[in-house]
Structure formats: C-alpha cells, structure tokens
Amino acid sequence: MRRFLVTSVLILVAAGTSVAQDDKNEVAVTVGRTFISDQGVPGTNFFDNTVHSGKGLSFDLSYARALRNYKWGSLWVELPFLWNPDEDLNYGINAVPKQYSSMFLTPAARVRFFEGLAFQPWVSFGGGLGHFVGSSEMIFFGPNTGHRIKTTGVLDGAIGLDVPLGHKFQNAIFRFEARDNWSGEPPINVDTGKSHQHNFYVGGGVVFKF
User: Span 106-115, mean pLDDT?
Assistant: First the structure.
C-alpha cells in the first residue's frame, strides 16, 4: 500500500511541477462518502448472509490541465486520486474482515461546459488502478488469515458541477462531484458471485486554479 501511495503522490507532484508556470492548471480537493451496494453470498442460508458496506469517509485529490478551449466549453486531462481509508463491513458470521481501505488512481479526459458562466457542468471518463487492503482483524474476533491485498484495473466515470466563487476569490471554484470507480472485488474472504463492484463517490470541495 505504501509503495502505491508514494507512486501516486509522486505522479501528482511531477505533473504539477512540469506545468506550474502557466494558468491552465487546477488542483482540487473534495471530501465525501463512498457508497457500495450490499452483496449476497450464493450458496449460504444463514441469517443475514449479505455483505453490507458502510459509507466510508473519502478524499479525492486531483490535478487537471486544460488542453483546449472552445466556444461551448473546454477539454482537460485530469489525474484523480480517490482514497477511502475505512470501508466498514457487516456480515452474519465471522467470515469477513472488519473493514478495508481502497485507493483509485485513474487518469481521465474531462469536458467542462459553459466556461465563464456561474454554473459549469462537466463529465469525465478514464481508467487506471485500484488498490485494496483488508483489515488484519475479522469482523467479530480473531486475526484475518485470508488474502488481504489486491490490486485491480478500474474504469472511472464522473459528473460534476463547478461554481466560480467570484472576483474576491477569482482563483477558486466550488466543486460538487459524483464518481463511479468500477473495480474488481476487494479481498473480503467470501465469494459474492461477482467479479466487479461499483464504488460510488459523492463529495464537494474546492478547486484552485494556477
């Protein structure tokens, strides 16, 4: 996990440093929640045989650079890094870890519409890597002896709304965003019969232009 995190941060820093001399760059920080659908476990019939996921507090740090402006909007490349440090789990028996963490690094293309107006919607699509680390403890008691670490490919789709904060804060924008990182299943020790899951993130924060 540390190697993946360090590599991700170095990519963000290098990208920002290489273009820090012009005004077509953005760094955004948003905070929100990750939502994951409950998943049943086929072949089981005990009470509460569904894996329930919490709504983990998550953080999205992204760097973006404008490539071209049009009359109707602008085209960007972005590098979002989404971190969910504590996704709690619940299950009827002591078969899953108590929680896991996830990180997604997904380079993407973004199109923002209506540049210069008070409300600027945008969409983006990309892909990259997802990294999961399961807890060393089981949900009720005892150590987690299962496989705890997994890295998968990820597809990332997002929509958002940017609202400039006015002349007093001309280099700042409020951002609302919703992302879906479609990844492989995390290492939770049970077979849900699925090979992928949707990791929906909804959050808000601030964009700094430079």
Answer: 96
